[in-house]
Amino acid sequence: MELREGLNKMGLKVDFTSLRDRPVDMALLVNGCKHACLEAKSLKAGRGRLKISVRGEMVDDQYVGEGDLPKILIQRISSFL
Fold it and tell me: What are the phi and psi torsion angles at 59 (to 5°)?
């Protein structure tokens, strides 16, 4: 299941954009590995903003299977809305 598709099925309208494009309410940081290089940059740019961090096979501090990643992200995003 794709993230956008799963959110739409739940009736949640989420506009995906970039921090560079315009201000956002929530940031989804997708790092390629658990070193989380995006974290330091985003902390400077978005103090006080809700953040969900994907670091390799982790969402925030929880290990998840690769196939479960969209489901976990949908749960986290919906809990903030």
Answer: -115, 115
Residue 8 pLDDT level (bands cut at 50, 70, 90): very high
Place of tokens 């995906």: 16
**What is the spatial distance between Cα 46 and Cα 35, in angstroms, rounded to a whole number?**
19
Q: Where do the structural domains in the chain lie, given as residue ranges?
A: 3-80
Residues 6+ apart with CB under 8 A from 76: 52, 59, 60
pLDDT in tens, 18-73: 777 877 888 888 888 878 777 766 655 555 578 898 988 899 889 998 889 999 99
Residue 41 has φ and ψ, to the nearest 5°, of -65, -45
CA-nearest of 74, 60, 62 to 31 is: 60
